[in-house]
Structure formats: structure tokens, C-alpha cells
Amino acid sequence: MFEELRERVVAANLALVEAGLVVLTFGNASAADRAAGVMAIKPSGVAYSALRPDDVPVVDLASGAVVSGKQRPSSDTPTHLALYRAFTEVGGVVHTHSPFATAWAQALRELPCLGTTHADHFHGPVPVTRQLTAAEIQGDYEERTGAVIVEAFADRGLDPLELPAALVASHGPFAWGADVEAAVENAVALEAVAASTYRSFQLAAGLEGIPAELLEKHFARKHGAGAYYGQPE
């Protein structure tokens, strides 16, 4: 069951390795089938080199119960579920501990938009969440990790498909997209702009954000009804 969904999840997880975003068994990718009401996600602790479609567990989006597969799903499954439940247009979620994006998360700093590379992918600064409370850490920790991402977007009035990433304070980045392939692309873009932004501040500590007009121009070239970047479908 869910063979294609599982194959896409394996391909997405391997793409994270190829892009240099994960080491050891850090990180995970999931894909949702909204019509079936399920998501497939990397199994917990399984080496990427050993990952096979049959290993990928499938989880009910509403209940969180495993509906197919014998492997235990990622320990981050409740975080993924929280994002799918709140961001209903999202079809794929990626979590990594990629070096530069994680550094921003550990520094408790949002990722400002300094240039057009950032603006091509993210419609403004990538938010950092608040830190979890002691009670949240000791309780449903992984679910609360997703909840603080959702809270950050609600508090700021952000569109999750226009800003498809967040930095969890003291933890690391999550990225998502309309499908898991887009989520992987956004995770790659996030690490790239996190690195370039860090280096830009090393060269000029007092930098301010990109002008609003340039941000809007670059984002609109690739997203929305008036997009004209790339080839027509």
C-alpha cells in the first residue's frame, strides 16, 4: 500500500543527504496524501544508506496512528503532524540540522532577507520561534515543537506557502512545500541563504534588509499569478 508515496519519501530523504543537509541519522522528510488522509515519514534511527520504501511507515494524519508499515516512525512525527494539520495546503515537510540554518536557530535569531536569493524563495525574514517552556519540553515535546512553529506564523500573520520554513529556537530548521519535492528544495534554499546571510554580516555587521520593492519584485517573479520565471507548464 502507498507504494508511490513511500518511494517519494525515500527519494526526498536521500536528496537531503546528497545536498549535504544531513549527517548520521539527523533529519527526516515526510509526504502527505491528503485524499487518503495519511503521511509517510522516514523511520526512526534508520541509516539513509539502508532506507527502502518498504521501511517507510504510513501514519494517519488525524489520529497519528501507524496504518501501514512495521518500522517505528520518526520521533519527529508529532511535529510533522502538527504542521500538516495547521497548514492545510502543505504536502511535504523536511527537518534537518543543516549547519548554517541551525546556527541561526541556536542563536535565537530570525533569518533576515538581505538579498534577492532569499527573496526568490522566502517572502520576507524566516521566523525563529520562541523557546519552549520547561512544561512543554517535559510534556508532549515533539507536538509542542510543531505548535510553536504554528504559533509563530499565526502571531506574525504569515502565509506558510509564501514563507515555507521556520527556525525552531535552540533546535534547527523545518521547511515545507506543496509537495515533498518542493519541501526539499526549500530546505536546500534555506541553508544556502542562511550561509550567505551569515557571511554578509561577517563582511558588514550593520546590514539592513533588502528594499521592500526588490523583495516583492523577486518573489513575484517566481510565485503567484503573475510569475514569469522559468518555462510555462
Question: Strands, helices and their partners?
Answer:
Elements: H1 3-18, E1 28-33, E2 38-41, E3 58-60, E4 66-68, H2 77-86, E5 92-95, H3 99-106, H4 116-121, H5 134-138, H6 141-156, E6 165-168, E7 172-177, H7 180-203, H8 212-222
Antiparallel strand pairs: 1-2, 1-5, 2-3, 3-4, 5-7, 6-7
Highlighted features:
41% helix, single chain, 13% strand, L-fuculose-1-phosphate Aldolase, alpha+beta
What do these coordinates show?
- It contains eight helices and seven strands; from the N terminus they run H-E-E-E-E-H-E-H-H-H-H-E-E-H-H.
- The chain is of the alpha+beta class.
- The chain has a seven-stranded antiparallel beta sheet, with helices on both faces.
- The longest helix is centred in the C-terminal third of the chain and has 24 residues, at 180-203.
- It has a single domain (3-222), classed as L-fuculose-1-phosphate Aldolase (3-Layer(aba) Sandwich), CATH 3.40.225.10.
Quaternary structure classification: single chain
Beta-strand segment tally? 7
CATH superfamily: Class II aldolase/adducin N-terminal domain
Could you list the spans in which at least 5 consecutive residues all have pLDDT below 50? none
Number of domains: 1
Which percent range describes the beta-strand content? 5-15%
N- and C-termini, Cα separation? 30 Å
- Provide the helix percentage: 40-55%
Report strand order across the widest sheet: 4-3-2-1-5-7-6
- What is the ordering of alpha helices and beta strands? HEEEEHEHHHHEEHH
Tell me the CATH topology: L-fuculose-1-phosphate Aldolase
Helices, by number, come to 8
Which structural category do the helix and sheet elements fall into?
alpha+beta
Q: Overall pLDDT, averaged?
A: 95
- CATH architect. name: 3-Layer(aba) Sandwich
**Main β-sheet: number of strands, strand sense, barrel status?**
7 strands, antiparallel
Shape: globular
What CATH first level would be assigned? Alpha Beta
Tell me the radius of gyration: 17 Å
